[in-house]
Amino acid sequence: MIHPSAVISGKAELGNNVSVGPFTTIYDNVEIGDDCEIMNGVTIMPGARIGKGVRIFPGAVVGAIPQDLKFRGEDTLAVVGDNTTIRECVTINRGTASKGKTTVGSGCLLMAYTHVAHDCRIGNNVIVSNAVQFGGEVVVDDCAVIGGGSLIHQFCHLGKYIMLQGGALVNKDIPPFVKAAREPISYVGLNAVGLTRHGFSKDDIQTIGDVYKILYLSDLNVTNAVKLILKTLPESKFRDEIVSFVEGSERGVIRSAV
Question: Is the CB of residue 194 less than 8 Å from the CB of residue 176?
C-alpha cells in the first residue's frame, strides 16, 4: 500500500488501509485516517490532519505554512474532513494565530489548482471548481457550489446552498440559498435547482423567496428591508437564518442585479 519511493516520517500517524503513491512526502506531526488514498507526488506537511476516506491527487500540498507575513511559526493545523476529494495541485495552508487552523469539511470536492488560504473554514459537501482562490479567513457554509476561476477576497462569508458564477470576483458576503453572478458580483435569484436537489420543498423555497423579494426587490436599503422582513413575514427558520446572516455581515452583503 506504500510505494518504496515515498518518504514518510516515523512521527506521522497513518490509519488502516492507507495507500501512498510514489514520490509522496509525509512530514512529522501529520495524522491520516483510515482508508485514505494518497497518490503520487503529494506533499503533506506538519500540522495536517486528514480524515477517513480522503483521496488526494498528484501534486497537492496540504499543511504548508501560511502566505501571511504576520505568521511567526506558531503551531497550527490544516484539517480535512472525511470522504473529501482533493484534486491535482490543490494547496491548503495551515492556520495562523488568528484562528489556529484551516478547515475543509467532510464530503467536499476541491477541483484542480484550488487554493485554500490560512484560517479559512470550508463547510461540508462544498463543491469548489477548478482554480478557485480563497483569501485568508474566508468562510464557506455547507453545500455551496463555487464556480471555476473565482477569486474570493479575504474575510468574505459565503452562505450555504449558494451557486456562484465561474470567474466571479467576490468582495462582499453572499447570503444563503441564492445564485450570485455578474460584475460586480450580485444577487440574480434563488438557487432553486440546487435547493430542490437537496430536498427543499416548494413551500420552503417560497418562504426563502419571500424574504429575498423584500431584501432585493423592494428598493429599500438593507436596514429597512430587514425591518420590513421581520415585521411582515411570519417567523421561520429560513427567515431568521437569512436575517441573522445579513445582520452579522461585516463586509456587507451583495446587492441585486435583478
Answer: no
Average pLDDT over residues 93-109: 98
C-alpha cell at 50: 486528514
Mean pLDDT for the chain? Answer: 98
In one-letter notation, the amino acid at residue 175 is P
Positions annotated as catalytic residues are: 118-119, 136
2: three-class secondary structure by DSSP = strand
pTM equals 0.97
Burial class (CB in 10 A: 0-12, 13-18, 19+), 35: middle
Residue 88 near residue 110 (C-beta atoms within 8 A): no
Whether pLDDT at 258 is above 80:
no
For residue 54, how many C-alpha atoms fall within 13 Å in the half-sphere facing its CB? Answer: 28
Counting Cα atoms < 13 Å in the Cβ hemisphere of 174 gives 34
Ramachandran category for residue 17: left, alpha or beta (phi over 0 → left; psi -120 to 50 → alpha): left
Predicted local distance difference test score (pLDDT) of residue 11: 98
How would you classify the pairing of strands 139-140 and 133-134? unpaired
Band of the pLDDT at 230, cuts 50, 70, 90? very high
